Amino acid sequence: MHVPDGFINAPVSLAAGAVAASAVAVCLRGARRELDERAAPLAGLVAAFIFAVQMLNFPVAAGTSGHLLGGALAAILVGPYTGVLCISVVLLMQGVLFADGGLTALGVNITDMAVVTTVVAYALFRLLAKALPRRRSSVTAAAFVAALVSVPAAACAFTLIYALGGTTDVPIGKVATAMIGVHVLIGVGEAVITALTVGAVVAVRPDLVYGARGLAKPLEIRKADGTVVPVEVSKAAPRPVRKIAGVGLVLALALAGFVSFYASTSPDGLEKVAHDKGIDAGAKAHAAKDSPLADYQVKDVSDARLSGGLAGVIGVGATLAVGTGVFVVVRRRRSHAAAAKAAPVTTETV
């Protein structure tokens, strides 16, 4: 659903950019409450994993494909504020390095694919989590429904943006029907991927899933006389995350570097609708079309399989580096703010 340059006019693109910038600023502050010493590096890995999975277009109808948007997955794994930042990093890397999603449309894409999907998905996820029994299976079920709904919600948001600033004269009713119809199908794929990923992590490390906090059994010490004493979380040593982080990184590299070669080559939902309805008549050439990684191919590497695989691996590495850097800085700002708040106030007498 990456919106190219030229689909939306300049005034609405600027307005969407202002909305996106404001949302990112709010999320940078909100993420301080979500990121602890383990979540910061893992959030960068979540961004890299979503980048990799977005390369795996899956068929949803004749001549149409879809791919993960990732808002629901990111929000449930690392929190809604951090989730918006994860998807924003992915969109930035895709636009700048791979000419995927317009640069003048970056605000539109962040508003639609990062903010709308994350807010809708996490709000619905929390409602379902409160209504369902407090079990790990409930987290997976809630993740499935939240992800399913988030994709047509993003399609509705695009339709609204297009109604306000579309550069071609296409009846908005036709755009809405086509966009929502195909993205309901794409939402099923999104839901399956999200549920499988969340379910896998919850099964082995529920303590690392933001949406599953409180499900892990409390730590206890059993004494020689048989009595059980609970251990306060603050006094318990945090479990290392290196193993699961390593597995996640290897999986992301494998998906982007190898599995992506077998992804569907059919146009995604927005591309198909834009072509069929004439929305793409106003499309403009991407400012980064001459990037050495444009279209997820490494320039001057003739073998398509090798070229695409290398581009995917580079993308995962770049997204991981930028994402981790952002989240580590946010985490340090939280630590500095906490230290300043806890510092004793001294007064001098003259």
Automatic annotation (TrEMBL):
**Organism source for this protein?**
Streptomyces hesseae
Membrane topology qualifier: Multi-pass membrane protein
Q: Where in the cell does this protein reside?
A: Cell membrane
State the source organism's domain of life.
Bacteria
Which stretches are transmembrane? 12-32, 38-56, 68-93, 105-129, 141-164, 176-204, 244-263, 309-330
Q: Does the keyword DNA-binding apply?
A: no
Question: Main localization of the protein?
Answer: membrane
One family from Pfam that matches here is PDGLE
Where in the numbering of this chain does the PDGLE domain appear?
242-332
Q: What keywords is this UniProt entry annotated with?
A: Cell membrane, Membrane, Transmembrane, Transmembrane helix, Transport
- The name under which this protein is listed is Energy-coupling factor ABC transporter permease
